[in-house]
Amino acid sequence: MRAVRYTKDHEWVRQDGDVATVGITDYAQSQLGDVVYVELPELGREVEQGKEAAIVESAKAASEVYAPVSGEVVAVNDNIVADPAKVNADAMGEGWFIKVRLKNPKELDGLMDEAAYQEFVGEQH
Amino acid sequence: MRYLPLTDADRRDMLAAIGVASIDDLFTEVPQPAQHQGLLDLPRAMGELEVERRLGAMAAKNTVAGAVPFFLGAGSYRHHVPAAVDHLIQRGEFLTSYTPYQPELAQGTLQYLFEFQTQVALLTGMEVANASLYDGATACAEAVAMAGRITRRNKAVLSGGLHPHYRSVCETYARFSGEQIEAQDPAPGGGEDLASLVDGDTACVVVQNPDFYGEIRDYSALAQLCHQKGALLVVVVTEILSLGAITPPGEMGADIVAAEGQSFGNALNFGGPYVGLFASREKFVRQMPGRLVGETTDAEGRRGWVLTLSTREQHIRREKATSNICTNSGLCALAFTIHLSLLGEAGLTRLGALNHAAAVSAAERLAKVRGVKLVNQSFFNEFALRLPKPAAPVVEALAQRGILAGVPVSRFYPERRELADLLLVAATETVTADDTERLAAGLAEALR
Amino acid sequence: MNEWSQALSAHPAAGEAASERTISGNRGLQIEEPLIFEQDSPGHCGVDLPEPPKLKLRLGGLERKGRIGLPGLSEPQIVRHFTRLSQKNYAIDTGFYPLGSCTMKHNPRLNEKMARLAGFADIHPLQPISTVQGALELIDTLAHWLKTLTGMPAVALPPAAGAHGELCGIMTIRAALEARGDKRSRILVPESAHGTNPATAAATGYEVDAIPANAKGTKNQGRVDVAALKAKLGPDVAALMLTNPNTCGLFEDQILEIAEAVHAAGAFFYCDGANFNAIVGRVLPAELGIDALHINLHKTFSTPHGGGGPGSGPVVLAGELAPHAPLPWIVHGLNGFDLVEHARGDAASTIGRLKGFHGQMGMFVRALSYMMSHGSDGLRQVAEDAVLNANYLRVKLAGALTQAFPGICMHEVLFDDAFLKDSGVTALDFAKALIDEGFHPMTMYFPLVVHGALLIEPTETESKASLDQFAAVVTGLAARARSGDAEAFRTAPHLTPRRRLDETAAARKPVLRWRPAPVQREAAE
Fold first, then answer.
1. How many independent structural domains does chain A possess?
2. Interface test with B, best of C131, C136, C178 (most B CBs within 10 A)
3. Does the predicted interface ipTM exceed a cut of 0.90?
4. Does A76 reside within a domain?
């Protein structure tokens, strides 16, 4: 399992072979507040890096979740649909959104690593 | 100036506190050429007496519905509103309160809107309703847009029995949003085949029940057909009282209901403000436009209410909102809620029966006038008559004689000669036997 | 921990002593009132109706079967129910609403009396025109006042609210461009704009392009970045939507330059008139170069907010847009006033209908009553007092709060939450504490261009004493927030009929209507 990578829109992606797991970061969930609803794509849908893949809503805000990588959606986390609080409780683990079969693994190279992301977050305020 | 609390002494003190010499110093950011010197060419301030005289003079030039035999409907209905309604809505805490964005300060508003949502859901037979839209016509346009979002299809088929204003508003909205509207021709007396128009591109079919001509139909089969083809059925109701007497859209398989609530609690008011009712299946609730009130608990575990699912709305979603709508029709919705609360189940049923009885009586009496034919097989409190000559001049002649005889269909379709002889007549609980007799006599005279 | 969890786990501050707990759950004048559905006396009715005659039904065999589920109550119960509900509401009649861009001014009762005259309230929109000349005269008079107050040649009256007016304005713009044969795809909207602006643009088929505001400390701080705006102008821009004064309470002083640039690019200039109260009678929007402006009658012209509506949003229009105005039009005919209800003749280029019937007549009567009561002299005084009151609050609160863009403001003043830094108190908590002090909170977190925005608009109908009291309370609360009592703020409000409500739960598991409790089945069946 490779290390986690991050986008500027606060998504994380963790590669495992040719499938990658995607979610929103702990920073993102803390900014959103209590998550009340998530809208996940259908299985089989093609997502494109940087384009909208899912929607996450709190009581006060709604945000697009952009795909950090391109590929086919092979799994969606029904647990967070049933219990959106999981996104707040464990954004980096149990609060994952979708799994994507990678179309182009090289896309991951262009994303931030842990250190770079932490620095990026530090600059936010 | 009775509405301005500041005195000249106040103004002087405040300018001093701010540190400027005159009020003009607070307008320095406005470019000089744009600042208007002196007063605009409009009357000066008037006391209450003067305002009452002037507006009273304008009001006196209108023929008041309650003063004459009155038979107009066509989407706006004259009902008796109990005296308590108007007193209650004028309580300052209702009249002058703001949108309930701070729920701790607005449990009154939120609770009555929750009651309103429940009443609308019960009346329409649907699972969930919102806290109102502007009126029935805009509710209809919003329903079409919502069906497009849900089905991700582009085409809406509108029945020819849909109120022409509602059709027109749908067409205006669609022109700019890119939906394709297929509005059918008016077909009073039936003969429309909507089922054949539903295909894989159809987002929704929009029907009205009772329709514009008053006809009542069962749309269950059409609902099933729509669902088979992946389309939604939108049912419009312009006379909400009818749902106290006939099968509601929810029991026919409707997916969205767009209705006008004016009949409960709200006067004719020359067309506005009215109150749009909007209801749908629960699974579509996140696609619903407008405000929604939800039940919750507070920090001490007590039941209370809040605006919810706000992330659909413009103040959060901005360009991705389900609609640009901001206001609901608050006070009109309150009037609706109070009136319907006073009626209750028993009163609503009885009021529906009284309306139907008045209309049956009027239809039978008017059909006896030579040359006049009743078009409808069925109706609730409004029906269409076919006269032996164009209806509009007949209505004008009767108006000159102090009888408001109904609405000529040509008012909506001036170019359609085949509709020119049609007259829409509504008879509510406010119509007496004497009124009907005078209308019958007047018609007979006008048709001689 | 998020806000809700924090509130739940905090100590319930100033809890009730055992001796204060009542048997009923009521607290003095505050009555716990159930839903009407929970007070059903089946068969009961609050209206006396005659027995309907027996007759052969003509409902097409579609008579309603089964119970609808509506409760039955008598008139005394209903009056008590809604009276008790009203007592849980804050209102302008009770106190100050410092809400920004809402213009929560006093709602004169004369307006209510006029709107209820039978000659206005008891007339049907489709009566023969000859029987409603007085109604058309009223609407025409209102139109005259709106055109004169704005300097614009035409006005569209049907829109039912401000957002509806925006839709109307942008639709006429698109229609005018199409009439020119000009297809454009973008609308420019400042980042400080109210959410209805981009929502309207999207609903009309346009892409939204946001323009930043100038940062604090720069020249023209808080106003739209004109250089950025000009850079975004091009042959594919249909319009600029601007609010002036803007939502930071500042006059866009470069507006003439902006209008020129917009027009030079072939685009239209739409102005959101929500803040017209600052300039009414003193500035003619026509002279600012705007092409369309919606006016919120429920803001500037005092029609009541009614707990969320109804509103009215007529739109004044420039000459090129006027032919596209929505139906119906009120015109002067041979025999008095006439209604143009169809797209032909002069109205052939109309965008069509935006709502049923003619417009919000009830609000027209109220607004005209207000306008006549004030007159051209009174309305000018309204703008001056509104701006005076806002600047007075600005200086009174300068010690306690941090102004987002220091300097003179117009009718509203914008602060940010810098004064709460390191206090552990959020802007939300601060606002909830204000509720315990008997005030509706100011607008929070809007406009988005400022972090933790607090936008205050006093309006001209607040007395100096009212402003002094408000300033004293806010100053006191700010000091309390900084002194480290974050806990009390986080659990506020304490004194309202309900404490802070769980909006998360309401959104996760929405309960949007009452349902009867499931009937318990007997064990033996």
1. 1
2. C131
3. yes
4. yes
